[in-house]
Write a structure and sequence with these properties.
154 residues
């Protein structure tokens, strides 16, 4: 393990909360307009999913960063790594939430899978964009250290 600084717990909590708040607003509002499902059902799915996703987000990002340090010696993400990061996050979340979504919507596991897949596709794009923007607004410690050593702005 190297001495490259990683994000703090408070930074990871801020990240997870902001990700879920903005995602929830977009998912419920867009979901009602696009699917015709009941706003109450989507709201409950959204809130429960948000809670599960927030916990998963914290754990997943911690594990992903540790894996990056071990495999690459750095936590800085290239665009392909960001894409992989987003896809793997959503795949794990889909597996966690599938039975709940099927039960809540009163549909088969297959129908719930298709619904979840559409939501996951949205969140892959959203996750990529959100994480890119977050890293620009709140640069990771490693980016700040590298910028300081080169005299460049973060």
């Amino acid at each position: 393990m190297t001495d490259i600084p990683m994000r703090t717990t408070s930074d990871r909590i801020r990240h997870a909360i902001l990700f879920e708040v903005f995602g929830l607003i977009l998912m419920i509002g867009g979901g009602v307009l696009l699917t015709g499902f009941d706003v109450h059902a989507l709201g409950v799915i959204g809130v429960v999913s948000s809670i599960v996703a927030t916990l998963w987000n914290y754990a997943y990002n911690w594990m992903f960063d540790r894996a990056m340090l071990r495999l690459r010696g750095s936590t800085l993400k290239t665009h392909p790594i960001r894409a992989l990061h987003a896809v793997l996050f959503e795949a794990g979340l889909l597996v966690l939430l599938l039975p709940f979504v099927a039960w809540m919507l009163g549909v088969s596991l297959w129908q719930a899978f298709l619904f979840d897949l559409a939501i996951a596709i949205f969140y892959v794009v959203y996750g990529y964009a959100f994480n890119w923007a977050y890293d620009r607004v709140f640069p990771p410690p490693e980016a700040r250290v590298r910028a300081a050593s080169t005299g460049r702005a973060v």
